[in-house]
C-alpha cells in the first residue's frame, strides 16, 4: 500500500506519498480501506518532530479516517467486512489502509457522506470527553471556545448549543465570526480587537492556546468554573494564580487524547456514539468541512492548516 511518510522533521515538503508495508489486524482490530482522512494540529507537530507517535502506533501521521472494513482480526464481533465506518486512531491515517481497535470504530452517521465522516472522530471525541465527560457542561451554562473557526471549535459550538448551553467563541476575522454565528455561537469575540475576559464569566473554557491565555482564562472563569486545556499553540509554561483558583473554587484540567490507553478511548467512543451520533443523524450537529485535498498532496493541506485560513476540517481523500 501507499502512505504519507515524514522523510525528516521539517516543513510540509518533507511529506512523501510512497510504498510502505501493508498493515495486518491484530486480535480485536479491523483493517480499514481508507476513503479519507483528516488533518489535525497534532499531525503538523509530528511532521516537525515535536510529537512522536505513541509506542506501537504506525509511524505515519493521521488521527482519524473513514472508509470500509476490509478484514476482521481475531476476536472481533458486531461489525462485518464492507461496513462503512470512521475511526479514532493513535496514528497511521495518512494511508490507503489502517488497522484500528474495533472499540474505536464508529458507524458513518446516517445522512453523512462517508468522506465527510473522516472529520468527525477526533473532534467528537475531544469535545465530548473534555466539555461534557470531564467539565460536565450543563444546560444553561456558558461555554467559551477558543478558536471557533477550527475543526474543534465548529464542532464544540454546535454540540454545546444542541445541549442547551450558551456559547461564546474567539475568532480572528469577521468572516470566521459570521460562520460561527451561523453554527449557533451567541457571541463572537475578535481576539485581535477585543478581550474575551470582558464577555465572561464562563462556566467552562475549552482552550487550545495554553500558556499565553492561562492568566486571562482564570480571570474569565465563573465561580466553580472549569478550564480545559487541550492545546499549547501559545506555549507550555505560564504562572498560575492559585489564590484566584481557590477563591473561585475553579478547576484547571489539561488533557490529551492520542496517548490515552485503548480502554479509555473505547469509553469515550462509546459516549460519542450514544450522545453525539444522534445529533448528527438528526441534523442538529453537522460536519463542517473547509476543503478536500488528494492525500498525496498532504503538504498543501498542512500549509492551509498552518495559515489558519480554514473554517472546520481539512480532509485528505484516497
Top CATH class of the largest domain: Alpha Beta
What value does the average pLDDT take?
A: 97
Number of helices: 9
In terms of quaternary structure, what is this? Answer: single chain
**Number of E strands:** 15
How are helices and strands ordered from N to C? EEEHEEEEHEHEHEEHEHEHHEHE
Q: What is the CATH superfamily of the largest domain?
A: Medium-chain alcohol dehydrogenases, catalytic domain
Distance between the termini: 12 Å
Model regions low in confidence, pLDDT < 50 over at least 5 residues: none
The CATH architecture designation of the largest domain is Alpha-Beta Complex
Major sheet description: 7 strands, mixed
Helical fraction equals 25-40%
CATH domain fold name of the largest domain:
Quinone Oxidoreductase, Chain A, domain 1
Concise overview:
By secondary structure, this protein is α/β, with parallel strands linked by helices.
What attributes does this structure have?
Rossmann fold, 2 domains, 318 residues, globular, 9 helices, seven-stranded mixed beta sheet, Quinone Oxidoreductase, Chain A, domain 1, six-stranded parallel beta sheet
Describe the structure in your own words:
The chain is of the alpha/beta class and 318 residues long. It folds into 2 domains: 2-120 and 258-317, Medium-chain alcohol dehydrogenases, catalytic domain (Quinone Oxidoreductase, Chain A, domain 1, Alpha-Beta Complex), CATH 3.90.180; 125-254, NAD(P)-binding Rossmann-like Domain (Rossmann fold), CATH 3.40.50. Helices cover 27% and strands 27% of the residues. It contains 9 helices and 15 strands. The strands form 3 sheets. Strands 3, 4, 5, 6, 7, 14 and 15 form a 7-stranded mixed beta sheet that branches. A 6-stranded parallel beta sheet has the order 10-9-8-11-12-13. Strand 8 (142-145), helix 3 (151-162) and strand 9 form a beta-alpha-beta unit.
